[in-house]
Design a protein that fits this description.
The protein is of the alpha+beta class. The chain has a single domain, classed as Outer membrane efflux proteins (OEP), CATH 1.20.1600. The protein has 8 helices and 6 strands. The chain is elongated and about 145 Å long.
């Protein structure tokens, strides 16, 4: 009987440990890390998928433009069957008459010179492909930035919850102390009620923060394409103790020539320049050569013509284009070019200001972290002093509760400062094309 109990106890213990192992594994699966979220976003983002499709489309456009270098080949056939003779009988020469007729022909035409249109068309197609690739890189950077911003917003709310939980623990301990003092008749009931009001405020803030965290978590889940689960928790190795602002050791980096946002505007200028050349090509002569092969005859062999090859050449001079609509189109394209150049200068100014602002925002938030740490140290010391004074009867309960709220605000201030710094850091790295992009698992 004893062995049976031991066996049952061993089986139950093993089963409990197995369940705990599963629970622990599930808990790990619900941990959200920034790099994993970025990978999910890269695989899920519709904007990235659409940009990939636009690149494929631009590749087909380039292939289409390249085919303009080759001759155009066409074939045609024509047949007629009359209800009466098309040509009546002619003794000796056409004894059977002609009541049907067919022709078969094939032609190949090669443009020798088209005013540069073919070359310009291929340059435009290549430019479009390059623009799409830059746009794809920009879309990837943008998705990485938004993922980081949403992640740090969630971290910020979670840390604020931790601050509030610590405050609730502190108030619960204080509430227990007040209850003991009230039972001993050492304090009035009003002091007990003061602590209860303080706890009610904490519970209200706790509920509000919980809902805000769920909304932020939902926003992040929808953005990276993962199922929404309120038990998921974002985790980061960055804390107030190991926080580093090493990026500020470098100098401000404004390299517009290699900046994707600047290059996109530059490509628009290049495209406008090619459009001007394309319109001007309409004023130039066009030269083409070709060969045509034809055969004609009748189905009743009334007559048959042997295959006749013909070589030909064409020269087109667009005389009226020098004063007609073609000239007006050139003027329109030249205006478009000036607009694109002005926009490029505006982008240069705006981007320089944007990068510089992000750099100074980064410095400002780093200073705020230092100030927040100092404020937290002062608030922590003040709370300890106020608690000692209260326990020794040197101050009242209101001073202690005020000190506790100041400590909570200082904790939250440091949390906000660190999260804000990480968001500003991501924004700055995005503006200089250096935001971290994880490699996808093969």
């Amino acid at each position: 009987m004893m062995n049976t109990y031991k066996s049952a106890y061993f089986t139950a213990s093993f089963f409990i440990l197995f369940l705990l192992g599963i629970t622990s594994a599930n808990a790990q699966e619900k941990t959200l890390q920034l790099e994993d979220l970025k990978k999910k976003a890269l695989q899920y983002s519709r904007s990235i998928k659409n940009d990939s499709l636009l690149i494929k489309r631009a590749e087909f456009v380039k292939q289409e433009a390249f085919h303009n270098y080759f001759p155009e080949v066409s074939a045609s056939a024509f047949a007629v069957q009359a209800f009466d003779y098309l040509v009546p009988e002619i003794p000796v020469y056409l004894p059977n008459g002609i009541e049907n007729l067919y022709t078969v022909s094939a032609a190949a035409t090669q443009a020798v010179y088209a005013g540069g249109k073919i070359r310009i068309g291929n340059k435009l197609a290549q430019l479009q492909l390059e623009t799409r690739k830059i746009g794809h890189e920009t879309a990837v950077d943008s998705v990485m930035l938004n993922t980081e911003l949403k992640f740090w917003q969630l971290i910020q709310l979670q840390e604020q919850q931790n601050v509030l939980a610590a405050g609730k623990t502190y108030v619960n301990e204080l509430l227990k102390q007040q209850q003991d003092l009230l039972d001993a008749g050492l304090i009035s009931k009003s002091q007990m009620l003061q602590v209860k009001v303080e706890k009610s405020n904490i519970l209200t803030n706790e509920l509000e923060l919980s809902n805000l965290r769920k909304i932020a978590l939902l926003d992040l889940a929808l953005y990276v394409g993962m199922p929404f689960d309120t038990t998921m928790v974002a985790t980061s190795t960055v804390t107030k103790d190991n926080f580093s602002a090493s990026i500020l050791n470098a100098n401000l980096n404004i390299d517009l020539a290699n900046n994707n946002l600047y290059q996109l505007s530059q490509k628009q200028v290049n495209a406008a320049q090619l459009q001007v050349k394309n319109e001007k090509s309409n004023l130039l002569p066009k030269v083409a050569v070709g060969i045509n092969v034809a055969k004609a005859g009748t189905f009743n062999d009334a007559f048959n013509m042997d295959i006749q090859p013909i070589a030909f050449g064409t020269l087109t001079l667009p005389i009226s284009a020098f004063w007609g609509k073609e000239k007006k189109r050139i003027q329109q394209r030249e205006i478009d070019l000036k607009i694109a150049e002005n926009k490029l200068l505006d982008v240069e100014d705006q981007l320089t200001k944007y990068i510089t602002k992000n750099w100074y925002d980064l410095q400002t938030t780093n200073k705020r972290i230092q100030f927040a740490k100092d404020k937290l140290n002062f608030a922590t010391e003040n709370l300890e002093a106020q608690r000692d004074n209260y326990n020794n009867g040197l101050n009242n309960l209101s001073d202690l509760l005020d000190a506790r709220r100041t400590k909570e605000e200082a904790d939250a201030g440091l949390v906000n400062a660190i999260a804000n710094y990480k968001q500003k850091e991501a924004t700055y790295l995005y503006s200089i094309n250096q935001i971290d992009i994880p490699a996808l698992d093969k």
